[in-house]
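PROTEIN DESIGN WORKSHEET
SECTION A - STRUCTURE
LENGTH: 279
TOKENS:
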């Protein structure tokens, strides 16, 4: 009488069958071993090198020298700043990826060094160089309105500040010192606060106005969240500014909060205390 194998032995035999690298195929009385090879992976094709595939005369540097910067695309201009790509990723491909990740070339102006470093091929030094270029661009755009832009309305103030406040991660508070025709004499940054607050004392605001012999002032601060709706602290500061303006006999034309159109429920991108009847 055959002994019935215990459960442990039976289990071990089943495991051995699973782990065997060969399966057997019975053909008549002969047994033939057939190796079970895994399905091969799909072949990996190298990423085309866009720069090498571009004719020498059509490469960014050659086009820049021949036609000037205005002839270059956004990708080509950014490639000139990057200067080089990485192994397996040429500079044009890297520049194109940056623009896609940011949504547009303009979107890069709000990026920090850490954002640039998330992309393979951009190290710490290159990231800092790019942040520097973006800050230069921000300041140049901020000065394009001229030395004495007219800032007598909230929409003009918001448009003037759009490139200045774009991408800021903390609240800042400015006072715009104006002449009698509501043209800018000087923009003064009063405070730079946290991600949710920038406290400004009326004394500091009007000290700057008196120093610049301003006939009127407009106070401005940003909301990093993009929603320009005023907080309780904003309302309180505005009341204090209004009383201080009366005391020193300098007109407070407005207090404007700048945000982003996309984050504003009213799709304006700014809030005016004068338009709300609070100044």
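SECTION B - SEQUENCE
RESIDUE ASSIGNMENT:
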């Amino acid at each position: 009488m055959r002994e019935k194998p215990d459960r442990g032995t039976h289990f071990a035999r089943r495991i051995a069958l699973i782990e065997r690298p060969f399966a057997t195929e019975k053909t008549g009385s002969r047994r033939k071993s057939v190796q079970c090879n895994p399905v091969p992976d799909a072949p990996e094709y190298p990423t085309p090198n866009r720069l090498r595939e571009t004719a020498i005369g059509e490469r960014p540097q050659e086009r820049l020298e021949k036609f000037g910067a205005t002839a270059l695309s956004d990708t080509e201009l950014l490639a000139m700043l990057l200067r080089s790509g990485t192994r397996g990723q040429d500079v044009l491909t890297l520049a194109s990826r940056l623009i896609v990740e940011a949504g547009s070339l303009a979107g890069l102006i709000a990026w920090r060094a850490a954002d640039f470093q998330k992309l393979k091929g951009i190290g710490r030094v290159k990231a800092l160089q790019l942040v520097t270029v973006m800050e230069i661009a921000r300041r140049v755009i901020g000065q394009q309105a001229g030395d004495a832009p007219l800032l007598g309305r909230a929409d003009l103030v918001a448009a003037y500040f759009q490139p200045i406040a774009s991408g800021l991660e903390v609240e800042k508070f400015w006072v715009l010192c104006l002449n009698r025709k509501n043209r800018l004499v000087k923009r003064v940054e009063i405070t730079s606060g946290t991600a949710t607050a920038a406290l400004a004392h009326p004394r500091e605001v009007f000290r700057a106005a008196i120093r610049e012999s301003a006939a009127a002032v407009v106070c401005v601060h940003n909301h990093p969240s993009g929603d320009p709706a005023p907080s309780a602290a904003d309302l309180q500061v505005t009341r204090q500014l209004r009383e201080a303006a009366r005391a020193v006999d300098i007109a407070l034309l407005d207090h404007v909060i700048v945000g982003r159109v996309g984050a504003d429920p009213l799709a304006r991108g700014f809030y005016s205390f004068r338009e709300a009847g609070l100044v």
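SECTION C - NOTES
Confidence is low (pLDDT under 50) at residues 21-36, 38-46.
The beta strands are 22-27, 30-35, 172-178, 184-192, 216-222, 251-258, 270-272.
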